[in-house]
Amino acid sequence: MNPLARLVPALIALLIIVAAGVTGYHFIEGWPFFDSIYMLVITLFTVGFEEVQPLSDSGRLLTMVIIISGVGTAIYAAGQLGEMIIEGQIFGYRRRRRMEKKIRELKDHYIICSFGRVGHKVAQEFETAKIPYVVIDSKPETAVELEPKGTPYLVGSAASNGVLKEAQIEKAKGLIACADSDMENVFVTLSARSANKDIYIVARASGQDAEDKLKMAGANRIISPYFISGRRMAALAIRPVTSDFLDTVMHGEHLEFNLREIEVPEKSFVINKTLEEAQIRQKSGASVLAIHKPDGGFNLQPLAISKIECGDILIVIGTQEQLDLLERMVK
């Protein structure tokens, strides 16, 4: 709500007092309207000037009423305005309006539901990949953290249809349900799927029972942090050098490689060409690791003679710049 709405009752009261005062002086004292307005102004602002003309007893009574009611109302309005300025409500409202406009302009973005440890990591990865996103979280502290950064956010329940609509779920590309509560993730998934049948949903689950519920709710992928942590720890114990190599390649401090999925659209110049003919590696520097075919199959070892077809999804690895260049080439 606009914080200035708190001033409306006081302003309406002042308007009534002004109208009554000007009309009263005009009819009671028989003064012209300009003299009546002047008398009202010097009375309300208590400047201490003499009356325009001598007042009758009725005029004096009207002046006392104006002083008691008008000055009190003006002081109340000024106090409310000062309180709003001190609390930052006016400037906070303007910032919030700018944030709402920023969220309304989002398209093909992702929605992160819950901003705990997992949500923070997801946001960090999106920032690195320069992927647009909006955060939904019920904690007011989230606003304090994200507002200075200019990150789009909404404070509220991600399971609420109204909040999801504010997050532009109809135009969103994907949603991450990463709350600590399995039940909350199920509700979020149900609400998101009902609002957008095409959105890609990745949900967090703590166990098999929750995974089954999330699948029925409409999640496309379910991730169990405990399962991934266990597999990761086992890999570090069994293949420590290989694990360190992959970490260095994918998340090294000075060498940042990324994986990306690039779909081959209609009229792309690479359609019906082999990898050798398309010269993907030579022109972009990125490497094709696999090709996902429209029928659901995978070419896990693409060769130079492997043909690219419309609707294929290329799984490629490279730096951010190389992947951006390849995406522009293919599209």
TrEMBL record:
Alphabetical GO CC annotations of the entry are: plasma membrane
Note whether Transmembrane helix occurs among the keywords.
yes
- Domain RCK N-terminal span(s) in chain numbering: 107-224
Instruction: Kindly list the GO molecular function terms attached to this UniProt entry.
Output: monoatomic cation transmembrane transporter activity
Q: Say where the protein is mainly found.
A: membrane
Topologically, how does it sit relative to the membrane? Multi-pass membrane protein
What are the subcellular locations of this protein? Cell membrane
Biological process GO annotation list? potassium ion transport
Name a Pfam family for this protein: TrkA_C
Residues crossing the lipid bilayer are: 61-79
UniProt domain RCK C-terminal: residue ranges: 247-331
Q: Which UniProt keywords apply?
A: Membrane, Transmembrane, Transmembrane helix
- Note whether Protease occurs among the keywords: no
* Protein's name according to its UniProt entry: Potassium transporter TrkA
Taxonomic lineage from the root = Bacteria, Bacillati, Saganbacteria
